[in-house]
Amino acid sequence: MPRHSLPALLAAAAMPLVIAATPTPTYSVAQSIAGPDGSWDYARADDDGSHVYVARSNAVTVIDVTTGAVSSLGNVQRGHAVVPLPGGKLLVTSGTDGTVRLFDTGSGTESASIPVGKKPDAAILDATMTHAFVMNADSGTVSVIDLAAAKVTKTIKVSPALEYAAFGSDGTLFINNEDKDEIDTVDVTRGAAGKTIALPGCKAPTGLGYDKAHDRLIASCANGKAAIVDAHKRQLTALVDIGSGPDAVIMDEARGLAFIPCGKDGILDILALTGVAVTHVGVVKTEVGARTGALDPKTGSIYLPTAKFGAPATAGGRPVMLPGSFHVLVLKRA
């Protein structure tokens, strides 16, 4: 063992311990994939990252990630949610006619049309992937669908203006309520709504994600905030600044990140989940209108549907989507 002088040892002991911080990954727009005209809502990628699906006004836009080929699948009336199912199936909420459609992704054929409530919007699967939970925004109910039987087995009364939802580790279903600025809770075993979680400082929450490692929820708010909620204590713990016009929270728990696409500002906010607190660690310039999106779980790439817009047709109205301008931005890690 080498000898060291006492002064040298003391000097070394007095030196501060320096721990290198984990660098925040950077993202940039790497590609733009054109698609058919029409409105859009939620997007999802399948688990193997081979395809990305976007719910559209009258069908589902399908992107083959490997080839970049774009196709259309199914027939719906104002699609909102699109959820890949086991066995090559796809669930799509059809908002105008109050149904949920099941499609075969290979042939594109419809295997079931299931009546639910008024304006079915978001839809998610339970942990077993055997039941779908559909948020009926206008009815204020949750339809529970047995996927094997392709029928509603339970309707749970909650409250109107239901938006996106997430399951907690204890099995509680958490649902954003856009009109009441709160998160509604549902005990799915009992089939009954529970206590609500107030979100002071968060206006019109829409997107919602669950951080399993820290048992917390992240809600995107229309007033430029992300609400961080302790799922166990059922209380708001922090508000993080983001852009305006968000409509989704895209979780990447494998990489310890959450992404919030903000359509009015045309940015993607990046939040780090690895610390005790959720922190804002980056912003990517995207495009106005990019408010929802999907994550490729294999590569970490992000897909954001959007379009180009012109002036509103009437004063104070919504901007008009320009014909032939719909496209999906592909963001990749540097």
UniProtKB/TrEMBL annotation:
This is Gluconolactonase. InterPro entries: Haem_d1_sf, Host-pathogen_enzymatic-act, WD40/YVTN_repeat-like_dom_sf, YVTN_b-propeller_repeat. Residues 1-20 form the signal peptide. Keywords: Signal.
